Request: fold
Amino acid sequence: MQKTLFTKLSIIAGLCIIFAIGLNMIGSVIYERQNYAASVIKEIAQQHINPQEVITPFIAIPTTVTPECQITAPSTTSKCAPSYSKIETIFANQTQATQDLEVSTDTYKRGIYHATSYDGTLKFDQRYTFDTTISRLYEATSTASAEQSSVNTPASNNKTKPRETIIHWNEAKLIIPVSDLRGVATLPTVTIDKKPIKATYPQTPLLKNLTYVEVAIPQNILQPATKNMASQQSRSSLIATSTSSEVLASTDIGSQSPDIKGTQATDIMIDLPLAGISNLNTVPTGQNFNLTMRSNWHAPNFIGKALPNAKKFTANGFEASWQNQYLTIANNQDLSQCLRIANNRCVVISKATLDTSSQSMTPDDAITAVEGIVTEEGTTMTDSYQNVRLNSFGVSFAEPNDVYLQTERAMKYALLLILVSFGTFFLFEVIKSSRIHPIQYLLVGCALFVFYVLLLPLAEQIVFWKAYAIAASACVGLIGWYTYYVLGGIKRATIFTATLAGLYASFFGILTTEDMNLLLGAVFCFVLLACVMVMTRKIDWYKIA
Reply:
């Protein structure tokens, strides 16, 4: 008697092992299809448009610096370092950014695969106060020149040619960086003090590695401040001439800055049409930055270095707002320090990827060796090429529960479903004295196995819940019809079919509750075990024939 029971249990265990191997094979198919879908999305990104990262617009001013030089008397020979260029930056005192995005899954398709794309308008309402910023630039250049000229004495045999700094105010540009300009269908319109100006592509890029559009700053915006600086420079030159025989650093108009009175503000508004796929990152710069995003997407995934300060979900989508002063100031420092490195040798990394987990740059990627460069102090540095990755935050529009993830979750309960089905058959044998052949166990297990074979291809074509309902209904109906003949009665077949249908419904309920599926799965297993123990509490297993 016990030998018969052991043989039956061994056969059931063997069948479960066979089906576990089969389920593992289906898992590899799911993984393969998932990778293929990801490769299709990458292909769409390469051929059409990438995820986007937008740096808050700022003003860049090219500057030429001639380092200090020692001239040996009387031969007047010199070993002067060549002049080098750098970029001075002016950030907005206040920026209000607004992003209105329409998200769709129908724009880019390859057969049954698609990429989640967005299309909308980014608006930047900025306010600049040029006089204080220009004054700060003057203090930096004039202080360095004064320190260098103070070392010259009439009795010295060697002459020192002081450093000369020329700030090209007439070449000042408003920079609007976008990681993939293919997503900018039309060049944005920029309004400076209520005067619209069309942005252009840079003919000679100021910034290395960044893709951007630019707008030339009208001279009447900077002219008042530069005139004041010119007058102050002339007064400074007269004072310096009375105390030193050397000539101080010369600059073009506006390269030296006085103590400017008044804080006249300049308003700049930017309307940037933008399209992209998967996710959108924003890099904040300036002093007071605030971002508001509105979209019709109902399940956003907030990514980056900061979560939104406030978010609201409605029937029409979501709205979120960010304001993080620390990240903004850190970006200002990193960006300005990088652009000031001589001859544009520092690279600003601005690129969004489909994989949101790979946005950050590791320390090993931050330093790359290149040829020697000349710094602001005129010294040569070798092997010191630095890449700068700015802080960003934003939203990923990837589908939160894609069919492959849901199918994979459903398969986690596959072995439990087969065990319950075989266990129910076994209980019918024990309690109702039914005789079920191992081949019949095998056929019912195959029907349960086919459910997952049907689920994946159906879910790729239609909504997941419909695919689940169709596959489950087909398998439950087939097994219910078959158990009518196996168990020898409609009552027993109905009980088994209802049990199986309840299992499928319960598993689907667990799958749809993302945050509690592990807890509900554990509770379900406990309840199931309790039911089996209650049903078999009076069975004398030693007397089973």
User: Anything to note?
Assistant: The first strand starts at residue 52 and ends at 55. The chain has ten helices and 25 strands. The radius of gyration is 36 Å. Residues 370 and 383 are 5 Å apart (CA to CA).
